[in-house]
Write a structure and sequence with these properties.
CATH class of the largest domain: Alpha Beta
Order of helices and strands: HHEHEHEHEHEHEHEH
Structural class: alpha/beta
Number of strands: 7
CATH superfamily of the largest domain: Response regulator
Number of helices: 9
Radius of gyration: 20 Å
Shape: elongated
Strand order of the largest sheet: 2-1-3-4-5
Number of domains: 2
C-alpha cells in the first residue's frame, strides 16, 4: 500500500515519464505530527520514506496543523524545498490554503483523504493541479445508501454525525437519498465524544 500511494502520485501527475527521471525525485509529504491525526500522519510519513528509499528519492516532511494556522506556510515550505510534488494533506484547511501558491509554482498536490466537493470544483475551475485518492462526497454517500438499503431495509436505523462539516454534509446527503426510496431514520443526531449529554444519545 505504501509504495502504491506514491505510484499513484507519479501516475497522477505524470512525474515519471521514463525510468531515468524516476530516481532522485524530491517530493514533500504533508501530514499532521500532533493531535488526534498524528498517528495517521506517522503512517503517511513511514510509507513515503519506505517508497523513497526504494526509489532513491528525497522526502521533505512538512507538518500539517489541520486548522487555520496552516495558512500559506505549507506552500512556502514546499516551494522552498524545491519539491516536484506534494502528497498527504489529510485536512482541508492546509490544502485549501496551499493550493493557489502551489498552482502558481506548478507543483501538483495529491490528497489522501480530503473529499471536499467545493474544493475540487474550485481546483477544476481555476486549473489548480490537485488530485485526490479519496472518493468524492457523492460517491461516499452513494455507497453508504447502497449498504443501508441492501442490509437494513426492514430495520430501524439512526444517522449520526460527529459535528464536523464533512460528516454533517455526508449524513444529510445519505438521509435525503434514503427518504427518496421511502426509508426514514429513526432519528438523526450529532455525537460529540466526552460531552456529558452524549450519554442520553447512547
Amino acid at each position: 500500500m505504501k509504495s502504491a500511494v506514491l505510484a499513484s502520485l507519479f501516475a497522477a501527475i505524470g512525474a515519471v515519464p521514463s525510468p531515468a527521471l524516476a530516481a532522485g525525485l524530491t517530493f514533500a509529504v504533508v501530514a499532521p505530527t500532533e493531535g488526534p491525526l498524528a498517528i495517521l500522519g506517522q503512517q503517511v510519513r513511514d510509507g513515503a520514506r519506505f517508497a523513497a528509499a526504494a526509489n532513491g528519492d528525497t522526502v521533505v516532511e512538512i507538518a500539517e496543523a489541520c486548522d487555520e494556522t496552516d495558512g500559506e506556510g505549507i506552500a512556502g515550505q514546499i516551494i522552498a524545498a524545491d519539491a516536484r510534488a506534494a502528497i498527504g494533506f489529510l485536512c482541508t484547511e492546509g490544502l485549501a490554503a496551499a493550493l493557489p501558491a502551489l498552482a502558481e509554482a506548478k507543483i501538483p498536490a495529491v490528497t489522501l483523504s480530503v473529499r471536499s466537493g467545493i474544493l475540487m470544483e474550485d481546483a477544476l475551475k481555476k486549473e489548480w493541479p490537485l488530485f485526490r485518492l479519496a472518493p468524492g462526497p457523492k460517491a461516499e454517500a452513494d455507497k453508504a445508501v447502497e449498504a443501508i438499503t441492501r442490509d437494513w431495509k426492514a430495520e430501524p436505523f439512526a444517522l449520526i454525525d460527529d459535528g464536523t462539516i464533512h460528516a454533517r454534509e455526508l449524513v444529510e446527503a445519505v438521509r435525503l437519498q434514503l427518504e427518496e426510496v421511502g426509508m426514514k431514520a429513526a432519528f438523526v443526531d450529532t455525537f460529540r465524544p466526552a460531552q456529558e449529554q452524549q450519554l442520553t444519545l447512547v
